[in-house]
Amino acid sequence: MTVIYIRLMLESLESDCILYYEGYFDNLKEELALKLDVSEDDIDMTMAYFTKCGLIQVDEDKNAELPQAKALVQQETNQAAYMREYRKQQREQKENFTMLSDNLTSLTTCKTEIEKEKEKEKEEEEEIEKEEDFFDVIVKSYQSRIGILDGIQFEQLKEFVTLDGMEAEVVLRAIELSADNSKRSFSYIKGILTNWKNDGILTLAAVDERERKFKEDKKTQPTNSGTVRAVRQVYDDPLPF
Which parts pass through the membrane (predicted)? Predict the structure, then answer.
């Protein structure tokens, strides 16, 4: 009987949980027996039992209403509504989390970019301060070993660093070489730096390497008097001006 009752409930779902008597047979039981392909006796026993239990209610038009089926449908409807609301809340939470995550990522990226920019500005300021310190050293070295350095001469020496990319230490080395060779003139220093620039010698390491090679080459040359210059005389060649 339970199986038939369940089938009756399923049958009633299409008509708002009511099994309507259509009048094709003498009573509803005969119609239901044909629809479910069961015996009329089984239908009769099932309806009698579940009507007594209050789970089937037959009205004056011989229609059978199944309250439990309606309750189950309503429960399913409530459950579906709950699940829809639950899924909606889950989607909203996910969207909010994604938005928050994107905002945090943007904030972190922005903060990182700002920090990078500040670090770059700091490095540039340090580089400028370092150059200014070197320029002060250049001026002091020139005036202590060569003589008075006027503004035009200073700018010309400075351009080897700022325009040509030469290390400030290289300018200092040129001043030292000029003084050591007793060539205390601005033209001589400028000539050294111009030759180095033309030869692509812009770093102190490159200067040291050039002097090292010169010394090695000197060792392999004959030591005849008047044919070999001293190491310092490598800068005594005619200057390009």
Answer: none
